Amino acid sequence: MNSNIVTVGKKIRQIREAVGLSRPKFADLLGVPPTTLKNYELGYREVGGAFLVALAHHPELHKFTLWLLADKKVSDIGQIGPDDLASD
């Protein structure tokens, strides 16, 4: 794996921090235990597909889906990255 690629878990943490939620609140929002989210963020556990689907369908978080999965942003269709929240 390319060491320049940020893991999905680290990107989930970036999203959580950008929206200003604690780990327990973010975990509750997506229906996972806080320890599971911690394990995702720290790379101790592979992020599950059900979690990614929940994030993609969440009305406040779906805007990060393309960035999370493909490192792409298309602001014309509302797909942004965590760093774009400062621009709002």
Automatic annotation (TrEMBL):
Q: Could you tell me which residue ranges the HTH cro/C1-type domain spans? A: 12-57
InterPro entries, sorted: Cro/C1-type_HTH, Lambda_DNA-bd_dom_sf
Q: Which Pfam families match?
A: HTH_3
Q: Identify the CDD domains for this entry.
A: HTH_XRE (cd00093)
Entry-linked Gene3D superfamilies: lambda repressor-like DNA-binding domains
What molecular function does GO assign, one term?
A: DNA binding
Q: SUPFAM superfamilies, alphabetically?
A: lambda repressor-like DNA-binding domains (SSF47413)
Name used for this protein in its record: Transcriptional regulator
Question: What species was this sequence derived from?
Answer: Aeromonas cavernicola
